[in-house]
Amino acid sequence: MEFHQASDPGARPVSGDKLFSNKKCLAWFHAYAGPDKVVGPEAMERFCEDIGVEPENIIMLVLAWHLEASSMGFFTKEEWLRGMTLLQLQNKLDYLRSELNDSAVFKNVYRYAFDFARDKDQRSLDMDTAKSMLSLILATTWPLFPVFSQFLEQSKYKGMNKDQWYNVLEFSRTINTDLSNYDEDGAWPVLLDEFVEWKKSWSAS
């Protein structure tokens, strides 16, 4: 994995074996940060382009988790320094991707995504954001995701709370694709009870 050379030779690191120094990491931050000393959405798009990763790639969520970023699309200097120095980002993108193979890390990233993507004025994720984040995280690992996404599209729900969010992951990991081991008397949120009922009626039609 190589980084593109920046127009300012000292602004961004290029590939090599040298570890990130705090000074280089700070210079890299200022190459992207705006006047408010925050790396915002447009700057993050440039950052993604420079490291050769699509902004919608789940790697960016894993990176944000490492940075302990509090808001989607925005990174403070403290978050940047903490995470980038820790990761020494050069040649680490494959490592970020491989981390998702660890079920405990995957669960932590998934749970982190709720607060990361949530409007801080709200206790729940709005449904459009929830669907986008679920697609990013679960679309390639949960066979029932396309059906669940269809259910959300036609449901009455306008958002998803933290309990529902956490339980969707647990459901995806423990419930068979044919729903044969789903316990209707279990402690699942009503959202998932309704999904199971909808899926069964949908399959029967």
Automatic annotation (TrEMBL):
One of its GO terms (cellular component) is nucleus. It is found in: Cytoplasm, Cytoskeleton, Spindle; Nucleus. Contributes to the neddylation of all cullins by transferring NEDD8 from N-terminally acetylated NEDD8-conjugating E2s enzyme to different cullin C-terminal domain-RBX complexes which is necessary for the activation of cullin-RING E3 ubiquitin ligases (CRLs). May play a role in DNA damage response and may participate in cell proliferation and anchorage-independent cell growth. Transmembrane segments: none annotated. Signal peptide: none annotated. GO terms for molecular function: cullin family protein binding; ubiquitin conjugating enzyme binding; ubiquitin-like protein binding. GO terms for biological process: protein neddylation. Part of a complex that contains DCUN1D5, CUL1 and RBX1; this interaction is bridged by CUL1. Interacts (via the DCUN1 domain) with the unneddylated cullins: interacts with CUL1, CUL2, CUL3, CUL4A, CUL4B and CUL5; these interactions promote the cullin neddylation and the identity of the cullin dictates the affinity of the interaction. Interacts (via DCUN1 domain) with UBE2M (N-terminally acetylated form) and probably with UBE2F (N-terminally acetylated form). Keywords: Cytoplasm, Cytoskeleton, Nucleus, Phosphoprotein. InterPro entries: DCN-prot, DCN1-like_PONY, PONY_dom. The keyword Phosphoprotein applies. Residues 20-200 form the DCUN1 domain. The keyword Cytoplasm applies. This is DCN1-like protein. PROSITE patterns: DCUN1.
